[in-house]
Amino acid sequence: MSSTWIAEAAAVFAKDWRCELRARHAVTTLGLFAVTSLIVASLALGPVGIAPAERIAFAPVLIWLILLFSSAAGLPRVFVHEEESRTATALRLAATPSAVFVGKAAHSFSVLLAVEAVVAPLALALLQIEATRVGMLAAALVLGGFGLAVASTLLAAIVAQGRGRTTLFAALAFPVLVPLLALAVVLTRAAFGATPPEGVLMQLLLYDASVTVAGLMLFPAVWNP
Amino acid sequence: MTRPSSGPSRLQLLPWLLWLWLAAVIVAAFHYAPLASGFIGESSRILFFHVPMAWVSFVAFVAAGVWSLRYLAGRRNPRHDVAAEAAVELGLVFGVAATVTGAIWAKIMWGAYWNWDPRQTSILVALLFYAAYLALRVAVEDAPTRGRLAAAYAILGLVVAPFLYFVLPRLGFTLHPDAVINTQGKIEVEARMFHVLIASAGAFTALFFWIHSLRCRLAALAVRDDEARGIR
Predict the structure, then answer these.
(1) Separation of alpha carbons A16 and A104, rounded Å
(2) Burial class, A111, CB count within 10 angstroms (exposed 0-12 / middle 13-18 / buried 19+)
(3) In degrees, to the nearest 5, what angle opens at C-alpha B142 toward C-alphas B140 and B144?
(4) B164 Cβ under 8 Å from any chain A Cβ
(5) What's the predicted TM-score (pTM) here?
(6) Contact between chains at A174 and B148 (C-beta distance less than 8 A)
(7) Among candidate residues A67, A71, A78, the one with its CA nearest the CA of residue A117
(8) Most distant CA pair in chain A: distance in Å?
(9) What is the rounded CA–CA span in Å between residue A158 and residue B146?
(10) 3-state secondary structure of A173
(11) Residues A105, A23: Cα–Cα separation, whole Å
(12) Nearest to B72 by CA among B22, B146, B18
């Protein structure tokens, strides 16, 4: 891994954050969508409607569904914006494909971490549940968010070159992300006191590693015409 | 110079042999194989069609991944792209047939067509994945771009598949009967049932490759026809 490659990936990451701070797209789509849907769901399912024991069972599903739909609403933009503003060609000339992939994935991951930092504590407060294993909750959010960001980056690069991008992203992403969501939900539920099946953390790590390697291998073919 | 015709060639006989083989499997499934114990009525006979169809859909999806790998790693030969697409289409047909036959059996044995059994969930997600593959192909007009993106997505399917088939079923309780060959490598079914099951799996696999070859030949003819008319 050369210093040029790292510099290219860092430049892509910094460029995306600079664009984000100018347009504030992630704040208005991912963040606001996540908070609004969490409040609406909590209103129906929270202290008003459902018993505490049942809330612990479905709160992880709610958190991860909100994160999934927030990702589908906001993350495809990392490549769609490049294609629409016709800057994709310049980016292809400026950086190697793997550096573009890593820079974009790191940007998506940091955006998701910011959204998770708001959604997770808010969900605990609104649904009145307690995380008995905080470390496990953090692991679920970080590992789940990482897999979500990496897979979404590859899929965003694919849908950016087709029609009907947002709906296509949801159709392509859901089957790929089902194992990740299932593992993240089980791990999050364990953080709220349930007993997890053996090896869930390792399986989540394995999923992240597999998707990262596949992303690095496939991205050059997706990115270069 | 064309060879003078002296009756049907061996290749022309293959489809007829396949039909005979399939007919023999159907007869054997109802008259040679015994009923399995612990199953309601004749419901165990669905095994001879449900399992081979699920197997063929698995073979088709793996084949689509391999053709996609050959497309991306090789010289981007459009024939490999067409072969991958045809394999996905047929894999979906066999996968839907396996799901429907499984649901009919579930209704008889478990009282409901759909129970969110981990194996039902796995095949449903796999079917959604390959339906999305076809949606992706429709969404991209340029043929080389379509081939490139679809191949990448199909290969991603090969990476995710082990999690669908091996990890997801471990996360929940399953009512599904054990595999024919268990984890110790021991065959769990009666010998005559095993014979029919193997014959059926072979017949359906041969049926898949025969229809696949026809589908690829049709696609090649369509390309040649378009070229002759100046469309491509």
Answers:
(1) 7
(2) buried
(3) 105
(4) yes
(5) 0.89
(6) no
(7) A67
(8) 57
(9) 10
(10) helix
(11) 19
(12) B146
- B26 belongs to a structural domain: no
- Classified as helix, coil or strand, B2 is coil
Q: Which residues of B touch A201 (CB under 8 A)?
A: none
Give A-chain residues touching B70 at CB under 8 angstroms. none
Residue B33 DSSP one-character state:
S
Place of tokens 């790693």: B73
Distance CA B91, CA B122 (A): 15
> Is B126 contained in some domain?
yes
In angstroms, the CA A148 to CA A140 distance is 12
In a 3-state reduction of DSSP, which class is residue A53? Answer: helix
Question: Would you call A194 an interface residue with chain B, using a CB distance cutoff of 8 Å?
Answer: no
* Total structural domains within chain B: 1
Return the closest-CA partner of residue A170 out of B135, B168, B120. B135
Q: Which domain holds residue B224?
A: 45-174+192-228
What letter would DSSP give residue B7? S
- The complex's ipTM works out to 0.91
Contact criterion met (CB < 8 Å) for A179 and B167: yes
User: Alpha carbon A161 to chain centroid distance?
Assistant: 21
Rounded to 10 deg, the angle between the B143-162 and A134-159 helix axes is 160
Reported as a single tens digit per residue, the pLDDT across B165-220 is 888 877 766 666 655 545 555 556 788 899 999 999 999 999 999 999 999 999 88
Among A85, A202, A74, A80, smallest CA distance to A149 is for A74
Query: Tell me: the pLDDT tens digits for A56-68?
Result: 888 899 999 999 9
B156 and A203 in contact by Cβ < 8 A?
no
Q: Has residue B103 been placed in a domain? A: yes
Question: Is A94 an interface residue toward B (CB < 8 Å)?
Answer: no
Spatial separation of the C-alpha atoms in residues B58 and B46, rounded to whole Å = 18
Q: What pLDDT does residue A197 have?
A: 78
Average pLDDT on B15-22 reads: 93
Q: Which residues on neighbouring strands pair with residue B181, listed in sequence order? A: B187
What whole-number distance in Å separates Cα of residue B49 and Cα of residue B70? Answer: 31
* Residue ranges per structural domain of chain A: 3-223
Q: Give a yes or no: residue B77 inside a domain.
A: yes
Closest residue of chain A to B168, computed from CA coordinates: A179
Centre a 10 Å sphere on the Cβ of residue A143 and count the other Cβ atoms it contains.
19
